[in-house]
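Recall from the previous lesson that a structure prediction takes nothing but the amino acid sequence as input. Here we apply that procedure to Ribulose-phosphate 3-epimerase from Pseudidiomarina fusca. The sequence below is the only information supplied.
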Amino acid sequence: MADYLIAPSILSADFARLGEEVDAVLQAGADVVHFDVMDNHFVPNLTIGPMVCKALRDYGIKAPIDVHLMVQPVDRMIDDFAAAGASIITFHPEASTHIDRSLQQIKAAGCQAGLVFNPATPLHYLDYVMDKLDVILLMSVNPGFGGQSFIPSTLAKLKQVRQRIDASGRDIRLEIDGGVKVDNIAEIAAAGADMFVAGSAIFNQPDYAAVIAAMRNELAK
Ligand code: DX5
Ligand code: ZN
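The prediction returns the following C-alpha cells.
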C-alpha cells in the first residue's frame, strides 16, 4: 500500500495570509487541506468556521478540504460546511447525540464522512456504522492545540483499527492527527495509518516542500 495522503493542518499556518499559505503547502506537495474547527466548548480553543472554508474556495483552492469538527452540537455545522466547499467532514462521536444520523447527514450533503476518536475514546463507536464511513481519524494528542507530542499508545490503537478496516473489506482511510513528524511518520504508517495530518511539523519550518519530501521519503522506506 503506497497510497499515502499528507494533510497539513492549517491550524499552524499564518492566518493573516491563509490563502497564500494553503497555496504554498499544496505547491509543496500536500494532498489534502486539514481544517480544524474548534468551538471553545467541546475543546478549549476557538478557531475558524464555514466562512473561512468558503473564502479558501473563492481564493481558488481546488484540493480536498478535510474538515475536522471539534464542536458540539455537530449537526448544525454539517450543511454549512458542505455548502462552503468541504470535501470530507469528520466529527467526534461524543459530540453527537445521534451518530448514525450525523453520518447520514454528511453523506446526504455530498461529502465523505468520518468519525474521530480521542486518545481515550473507545472504538466501540465503530460497531454499527462501518458501512457509512469513508474515514476513521485517530487523535494522537488531546484535541485543541497544535504542537503537542504524539501519544505512543495510539500505535496499538491504529493497529486495531487497521484490522477492523481490512476485515470490513471497505475502502476506508485511516487518518492520524497530532504530533506527526518526519521522525515518527514511518512507524505510524507501519501501524496502519494512510493519511497523515501534520501542522507544526510543516508550518513551523521555512521550507514546506522539504518537510513533505522528507515525510514521503520516510513513507517509501
Ligand atoms: C489538534 C488538531 C490538529 C493539530 C495538529 O486538536 O486536530 O489537527 O493541528 O497539530 P500538530 O501536527 O502540530 O500536532
Ligand atoms: Zn485536526
